[in-house]
Amino acid sequence: MAPSEDVAVVDEELIQQALHEGQDGGAPLSVMVSEAASLRLSFKTIKSIANLSGFEKLTTLCLDNNVIDKIANIGHLVNLKWLDLSFNNISVIEGLENLTQLMDISLYNNKISEIQGLDACKDLQCLSIGNNDVKSLDICHYLRKFKKLHLVNLEGNPVCDETEYKMQLLAFLPSIKYMDYALIQPSDVANAREQYQDELQEAEENEAVEAEKAKRDAAAAELTATLEKANLSVIQTIFDDFFKEDSEHHKLQHLPTINEHVDTLRNSIDQLSEGLKITGLQLQESKDLEITKFEDALNKLRGQAAATSVKLIEDFNMEKKRVLNTIEMDGAPPQNATPLLAKLDALYDKLMDLEMQQVQQFEELQDQFYEVYGNLKAQCGDLTTAYFKNLQEAEENYYSNVTGLANELLEKAGKEDLPEGLPEEAKNLLVDRDALLASISASHDVHVTKGFNAESQMEEKEKNRFKEIIDNYTEDSSKRNRSRIMEMFQFVKASKEEIENILEEDAVEEDEYDDL
């Protein structure tokens, strides 16, 4: 595209023109945008990608043969499967982090020097990136992660001049079938993999290690999320929190055998935390079950109320239709519609009674839920209290043991009977008894404070979560109640206007007749 040409902006007119191509449609633009599966904006001298909001269902996007220099503003097109950005001025592959369904991308004839930014596109099958500036054979290792990739076009890049280019690509890409416009022969793949069998074995071993690490990381993330949901995150950090900001321990750690007491404390905390986790997760399951039971009962209640309301409205509408048909089709007197007004008022009263009854039943259900869930919350509180009480006892034992160790060493120091090879830092600690014991006491205070703060945070979080659950249900019920009353009011208003219009027309006709 000649640089002197005027660049275009992706605006409403351009989008409308593109969507109308090949269609007879007269649908509103907003409808066409929301329903569009394909959008072609090729050869439009577009400089930057913009104004593509609303294309939720888009699966194909063609922006080839423009002057685009940056991939941007397409992250919301999460259903995109086919993307053509060939013949542009793009230098970096970016902005594709959310396009997890992308299967085919063309970046042919751009200014790209490195293949990157495709990590989220796990389903990638076709990559056309010929006529760019890719130089390194490291692309083989990067592209290997795309297990479904069977078509690659790199023709026209400097890397193609590398002696080992073809053989490495064939060896490292597990699903390769087409390469640089040519069908790959299985025998060529076999020869390439044999030639690079040592490198492939190393790559496979590294992949196995990475896969195992990813599996562990995923399990750890799942556990963290589970513990967070159950308000048990403290067990993952409490021991480290004890010592993380304990500046005194950095001095005390030089005392011989103190690490044995640290390990004893760690084991005690681990055992306590495991017990808290088991019981706490069981209580969380009970909470989840109560929420499910409450929501099922609530949905059943609302469903029954809605069905009754619909039946009442349908019966009235049938009666109204019957009466109005006799007036319009059979010539019955319009006054026959008058009783409908009384029936409409009666219907409104019944609907309001149903709604108020439903609100009352909701409150009764909520009270029952509040009581049961509140008991579970109380059990969690008791569990937390017991945990931190035992935690404090474990810390007191640690404090007592370290104090005993210090006194023993101070006594030996007084007798000049200290162990040989004692670190200089430890000897310095034993020079001043009061300073050493004060340091141990300060370390103990840090641990006690950490435990107290952690307990307070757990209790506050449990209280806030319970309040949030109740508040959400109450707010949802209030919104629904307001919406239902408004719907009933609008229905009654519209029905009354329809009936009164017929009666008014009849009154006008009678007045005109009397004037004759």
Automatic annotation (TrEMBL):
PANTHER family: DYNEIN REGULATORY COMPLEX SUBUNIT 3 (PTHR45973:SF12), PROTEIN PHOSPHATASE 1 REGULATORY SUBUNIT SDS22-RELATED (PTHR45973). InterPro entries: Cilia_flagella_integrity, Leu-rich_rpt, LRR_dom_sf. It comes from Triparma strigata. Residues 189-221 form a coiled coil. Transmembrane segments: none annotated. This is Dynein regulatory complex subunit 3. SMART domains: LRR_SD22. The lineage of its organism: Eukaryota, Sar, Stramenopiles, Ochrophyta, Bolidophyceae. GO terms for cellular component: cilium.
